[in-house]
């Protein structure tokens, strides 16, 4: 038997609250028993691989963003993270979600929370869609197939971009059971646009998403400052960056070359590409044209006013996405969450209304649905995951969002997504 003899200065004196004369009382210590310690010693299941370990420690999309910033070269991170001009549109989108104040209803039975909803007439496990993002293999060579596989696994749609780095057919082969949408930009060469429509139909894509907010390239100042070209060029600066991000460069140089799947060859900046290929003369007649050549659901993305929502629904759209392209096109564009309710009021009885821009958490998704959206789209949220750890990172982003959606619903006192109402949310005045 041994005794722990504490030096006098380590003895802890506490004041007896009951005693009016406030005599100091010594804390009586004893040796802990093994039987008491043993249950506290629960070894955590720490993943051995460093990427897995970092992803497991990420508790939010913001944590994944920090990991992404460390892993990807600066120009690549900035291409994803950045927006147009002074990035006012993007900041305002985020601030709008920060202004959301939930109005919870307590004492509701939320023992079972169902996060599913209907999107384009089919069930989706969450009111969430992975947005189309160009050049996804630049963020991580797992690229679009990884995003599509995660979307299929968690039961939500994913839209492949015209500017994707995986072809329509290869993506279909990578996620044959997933809900695949194709996002179309109208090329100056209409025959080429029509060719995409035909290939998407033949490869079993469910919906066509026409993006209409990109007549000319947005002013992406971070890309200009970083000298971003596509594919990234090996300059002295990028080589120096390579030393800082060896895993990214090793991955890039040892996998299939990075190129746009829908273009045979292009070298230059994103702005050069958009300026050369996209048709600034597109009009509402082109929505009607697309309606006539695509017989599946037609979604129009980039709607920012009630008048435009009405016009595209009149031209045959089945759904609209209230979006300013994540702030990457017109800076100082309308803020999607703020425009959303009036668009829902105007066309919600004839079309589904979705929203995107600045969504970084499951509670943002819940707020968007409460404001009238059938579903929310996220771009950067899954791209941060992709940059942080490839497919496993996208899965981590999806798991985080799914957990937050379910948790927010429960705390709001809502057990089913269709029960979310506008009065569950109040927008605080800034
Ligand atoms: C890196 C990146 C590339 C994008 N590429 C496209 C694209 O090719 N086509 C398109 O319609 N939208 C594109 N977008 C916009 C997204 O579809 C979506 O509107 C936007 O990301 C939503 O904002 P969030 O990133 O804050 O979620 C892109 C967005 C990002 C971040």
> Whole-number radius of gyration?
26 Å
Q: Approximately how much beta-strand content do the residues carry?
A: 5-15%
Q: Counting H and I runs of at least 4 residues, what is the number of helices?
A: 18
Q: Average pLDDT across residues?
A: 91
Q: How many extended strands?
A: 14
Strand arrangement, largest sheet?
6-13-12-11-10-9-8-7
Structural class: alpha/beta
Helical residue percent band: 40-55%
Q: How far apart are the first and last residues' alpha carbons, in Å?
A: 66 Å
Uncertain residue segments = 1-19
Can you tell me the overall shape? globular
- Oligomeric category: single chain
The small-molecule ligands in this entry are: flavin mononucleotide
Largest sheet: 8 strands, parallel
Account of the protein in words:
With 430 residues, the protein is α/β, with parallel strands linked by helices. The chain has helices at residues 34-37, 50-57, 61-71, 74-81, 88-98, 136-139, 143-154, 168-174, 190-202, 221-226, 236-244, 246-253, 270-277, 284-293, 306-314, 336-347, 362-370, 380-412; strands at residues 13-15, 24-26, 100-102, 117-119, 122-124, 128-130, 158-161, 180-184, 207-211, 298-303, 319-322, 352-356, 375-378, 425-427. β1 (13-15) and β2 (24-26) form a beta hairpin. α7 packs parallel to α18. The protein starts with 12 loop residues before the first strand and ends with a strand. The model is unreliable at 1-19 (pLDDT under 50). Flavin mononucleotide (FMN) binds next to α4, β13 and α18.
